[in-house]
């Protein structure tokens, strides 16, 4: 392997790593705020990518029906759980976020999809369809289990993952899709060819990381999420309901998942179940970070991407095995070293 | 003076045992009510149930309305704040963020109001102003207690419930904290004070309850309780049982909910 091949592999690795980093950050966020290990994160990637692919072909994506259905279930779940204390204003708010919003998104999509709108509009529609599924799924599957152990929440997460994968097959079929790159430009840096698409991925990832940083450091809502993560009871004692923090965390997870799907779809063919594998690599990064540290998760994700790229060159048939093997020394080190993440309280 | 807060025949099970067995208690508006008792008497369990952290049987009435079915957050929005025994601070956030989050319920009121509220708490606890950029996890015990109280006050509570504010603190700091508690009564905040340090608690409170094995064994105006021979012997360290219970600040208070 000479330097130029190494540089190409490195570039590939860093670009994939950027996507894994987004997913890893999202997994850390959801776990610290809600204690849910969000296995279905990857489904948001496939749903995002495939929804965009359908919009690109001028078809109305069936995910809008899923969005409507999840909204209805979420609304029913919330009204049922709060049946004793619900105020009229709260019911109106629920109807707004869970019924009116998805209905509006679905209507706009049905209107615009056949007209093949510009790419920016397609992407905006995709994000609008997929993002709200995050909080709806939280209200449906996880909020009723708020007091359950991490293990029960994990089992629920696996259930949601299996259900969404099946629905993905129904909506998108077994065939994969790939979307057009946002940019077909190519730049030459020394001996290295850099595609416009890879610059897009790096740029969007950097912007999203910066925006998340600003959200957590500068806004009171962001600080409320951190407060819930460091001391759930303390947050409740100042009126920060875990259900509110969790819904925000799941909204961010839905958005990050859908955006990752949009970014990754021009790079590789995405099938209804591809997202799981991509999400799992973000999960490896999150585990290396002890499901606790954002910077370590980001750095680990880049490492995962680079290891994957190098492995695919030297031992392509063992590429996935090598990537997932990284987790074992980390687990050993975490078991025998000082534990970073405390098991939740009882 | 009508009662702001009442417990009626409250039963609380904790770890499968009835830790609180039929406690009735009333906190009038603008008064300090203290609940004293030994380690494990059920004091913290009672407060945690009053705040909704632990499930309970019996009546909990705030401002004339039952609040039994409300969550912790909803009780906080009604105007009840609990400064828990373990303080429950946001250790990895700076002092000022901890305080700002205490006002989360008023987040739509704008910057000026938030600054005014911060200044009010800083005036009450000048030490917190000096430490505003420091992480809450690095504070001393007394500062942590001040921060927990300051954070609770940021939410403008009408009833402030304090769980062992003197626990593990040096006598000088205890005196300062109790002086501030008295000044809060003057500002119209009603206070329910749970303490093992019976002497200090009875000195500043208007009315007192003695909790033994999850039951109220004695109640009365604080001055009268201080005179009571049994209280003096068991909790104030006079007479035969000196030092057995009263000022013994062991941390292993296992009636605290975690």
Automatic annotation (TrEMBL), chain A:
The chain crosses the membrane at residues 20-42, 62-80, 92-113, 119-138, 150-172, 192-216, 237-263, 283-306, 318-336. It is a multi-pass membrane protein. Keywords: Amino-acid transport, Cell membrane, Membrane, Transmembrane, Transmembrane helix, Transport. The keyword Transmembrane helix applies. It comes from the Bacteria. It is found in: Cell membrane. Belongs to the binding-protein-dependent transport system permease family. LivHM subfamily. This is Branched-chain amino acid ABC transporter permease. It comes from Camelimonas fluminis.
Automatic annotation (TrEMBL), chain B:
The keyword DNA-binding does not apply. Keywords: Amino-acid transport, ATP-binding, Nucleotide-binding, Transport. Residues 5-238 form the ABC transporter domain. Pfam families: ABC_tran. GO terms for molecular function: ATP binding. Belongs to the ABC transporter superfamily. PANTHER family: ABC TRANSPORTER ATP-BINDING PROTEIN, HIGH-AFFINITY BRANCHED-CHAIN AMINO ACID TRANSPORT ATP-BINDING PROTEIN LIVF. This is ABC transporter ATP-binding protein. It comes from Camelimonas fluminis. The lineage of its organism: Bacteria, Pseudomonadati, Pseudomonadota, Alphaproteobacteria, Hyphomicrobiales.
């Amino acid at each position: 392997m000479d330097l130029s091949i190494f540089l190409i592999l490195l570039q590939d690795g860093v670009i994939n790593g950027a996507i894994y980093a987004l997913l890893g950050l999202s997994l850390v966020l959801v776990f610290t705020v809600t204690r849910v290990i969000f296995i279905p994160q990857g489904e948001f990637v496939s749903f995002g990518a495939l929804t965009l692919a359908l919009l690109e072909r001028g078809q109305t994506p069936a995910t809008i029906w899923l969005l409507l259905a999840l909204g209805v279930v979420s609304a029913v779940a919330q009204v049922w759980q709060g049946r004793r204390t619900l105020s009229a204003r709260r019911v109106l708010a629920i109807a707004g976020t869970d019924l009116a919003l998805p209905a509006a998104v679905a209507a706009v999509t049905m209107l615009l999809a056949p007209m093949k709108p510009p790419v920016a509009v397609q992407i905006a529609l995709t994000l609008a369809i997929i993002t709200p599924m995050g909080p709806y799924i939280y209200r449906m599957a996880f909020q009723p289990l708020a007091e359950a152990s991490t293990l029960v929440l994990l089992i629920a997460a696996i259930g949601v993952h299996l259900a969404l994968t099946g629905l993905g097959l129904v909506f998108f079929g077994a065939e994969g899709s790939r979307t057009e790159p946002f940019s077909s430009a190519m730049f030459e840096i020394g001996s290295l060819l850099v595609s416009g698409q890879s610059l897009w991925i790096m740029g969007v990832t950097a912007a999203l990381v910066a925006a998340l940083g600003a959200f957590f450091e500068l806004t009171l809502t962001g600080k409320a999420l951190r407060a819930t993560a460091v001391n759930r009871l303390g947050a409740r004692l100042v009126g920060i309901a875990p259900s509110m923090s969790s819904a925000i965390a799941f909204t961010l997870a839905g958005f990050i998942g859908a955006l990752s799907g949009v970014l990754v779809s021009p790079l590789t063919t995405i099938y209804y179940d591809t997202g799981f594998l991509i999400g799992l690599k973000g999960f490896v990064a999150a585990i290396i970070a002890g499901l606790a540290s954002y910077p370590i998760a980001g750095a680990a994700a880049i490492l995962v991407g680079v290891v994957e790229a190098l492995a695919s060159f030297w031992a392509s048939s063992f590429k996935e095995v090598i990537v997932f093997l990284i987790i074992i020394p980390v687990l050993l080190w975490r078991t025998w070293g000082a534990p970073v993440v405390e098991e939740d309280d009882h | 003076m009508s009662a702001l807060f009442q417990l009626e025949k409250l039963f609380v099970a904790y770890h499968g045992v009835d830790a609180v067995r039929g406690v009735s208690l009333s906190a009038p508006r603008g008064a300090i009510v203290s609940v004293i008792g030994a380690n494990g008497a059920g004091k913290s369990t009672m407060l945690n149930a009053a705040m909704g952290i632990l499930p309970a049987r019996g009546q909990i009435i705030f401002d004339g309305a039952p609040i039994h079915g409300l969550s912790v957050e909803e009780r906080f929005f009604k105007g009840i704040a609990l400064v828990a025994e373990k303080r429950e601070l946001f250790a990895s956030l700076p002092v000022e963020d901890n305080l700002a989050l205490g006002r989360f319920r008023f987040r739509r009121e704008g910057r000026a109001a938030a600054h005014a509220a911060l200044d009010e708490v800083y005036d009450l606890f000048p030490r917190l102003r000096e430490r505003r950029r420091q992480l809450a996890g690095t504070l001393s015990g007394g500062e942590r207690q001040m921060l927990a109280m300051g954070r609770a006050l940021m939410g403008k509570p009408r009833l402030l419930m304090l769980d062992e504010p003197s626990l593990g603190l040096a006598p000088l700091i205890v005196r300062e904290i109790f002086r501030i508690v008295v000044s809060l009564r003057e500002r119209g905040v009603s206070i329910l004070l749970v303490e093992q340090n019976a002497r200090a608690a009875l000195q500043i409170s208007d009315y007192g309850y003695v909790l033994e094995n999850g039951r109220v064994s004695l109640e009365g105006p604080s001055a009268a309780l201080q005179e009571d021979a049994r209280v003096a012997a068991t909790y104030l360290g006079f007479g035969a049982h000196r030092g057995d219970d009263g000022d013994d600040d062991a941390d292993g208070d296992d009636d605290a909910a975690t």
